[in-house]
């Protein structure tokens, strides 16, 4: 079996997030710090990537003061606790090829030191020695102690309710490497 590692290029990789509430939605970006993907015989078999929780940006709020206040709230203990947990981690535990370039990926997502399994579909394309991967991960924030304005934990929230699920639209560019990548 021929194994090939690919090092994620952070400057060409990112996560677009969407969080929804009763009355609207917010969106933004969060950076991927580093990571690797592993292919055996040309098929995805493993990998991991580190998410920089301190890099969360909000794109839909243009007022600087409101944007800064919201960003501070996302970094607080109500959500990502970025000061205490500056990184989140996703580790692939299995990858099953479903089509030419489509995989069902299972892995462990760790946020705020709490780990839960996640399954999602991803698309992979190889162009020369560059691997392009994308997928949508749906996360139930309450499983990671993000309970703020969740209908599961608070009553009578009305139009201030925030839905538990948020989307992470992951786009990764990784370059083939010849030697092992340190963790």
Structural class: mainly beta
Tell me what the CATH architecture is: Beta Barrel
In this structure, how is the largest beta sheet organized?
9 strands, antiparallel
Number of domain units: 1
The number of helical segments is: 1
List how many beta strands DSSP finds.
Answer: 9
Mean pLDDT: 82
Shape: elongated
Order of helices and strands: EEEEHEEEEE
What is the CATH topology?
Lipocalin
**What's the gyration radius in Å?**
17 Å
Sheet-strand content, in percent, reads: over 45%
N- to C-terminal distance: 22 Å
In the CATH hierarchy, what is the class? Mainly Beta
Question: Ranges with pLDDT <50 over ≥5 residues?
Answer: 148-162
List keywords for this structure.
nine-stranded antiparallel sheet, 183 residues, Lipocalin, 59% strand, mainly beta
Your description of this structure?
This protein has 183 residues and is mainly β. The chain has one domain (3-177): Lipocalin, CATH 2.40.128. 7% of the residues lie in helices and 59% in strands. It has one helix and nine strands. Strands 1, 2, 3, 4, 5, 6, 7, 8 and 9 form a nine-stranded antiparallel β-sheet that branches. Strand 2 and strand 3 form a beta hairpin. The longest helix has 12 residues, at 64-75. The model is unreliable at 148-162 (pLDDT under 50).
Q: In a nutshell, what does this entry contain?
A:
With 183 residues, the protein is mainly beta. The protein has one domain: Lipocalin, CATH 2.40.128.110.
């Amino acid at each position: 079996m021929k194994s090939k590692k690919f090092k994620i290029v952070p400057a060409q990789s990112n996560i677009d997030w969407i969080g929804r509430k009763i009355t609207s939605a917010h969106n933004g970006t969060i950076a991927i710090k580093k990571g690797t993907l592993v292919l055996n015989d040309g098929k995805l078999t493993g990998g991991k990537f580190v998410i920089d929780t301190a890099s969360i940006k909000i794109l839909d709020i243009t007022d600087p003061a409101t944007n800064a206040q919201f960003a501070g709230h996302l970094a607080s203990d109500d959500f990502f606790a970025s000061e205490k947990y500056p990184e989140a981690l996703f580790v692939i535990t299995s990858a099953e090829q479903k089509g030419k370039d489509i995989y069902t990926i299972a892995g462990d997502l760790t946020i705020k030191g709490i780990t839960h399994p996640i399954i999602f579909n991803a698309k992979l394309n190889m162009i020369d020695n560059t691997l392009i991967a994308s997928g949508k991960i749906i996360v139930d924030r309450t499983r990671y102690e993000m309970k703020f304005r969740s209908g599961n934990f608070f009553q009578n929230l009305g139009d201030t309710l925030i839905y538990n699920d948020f989307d992470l639209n992951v786009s990764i560019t990784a370059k083939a490497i010849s030697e092992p990548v340190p963790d």
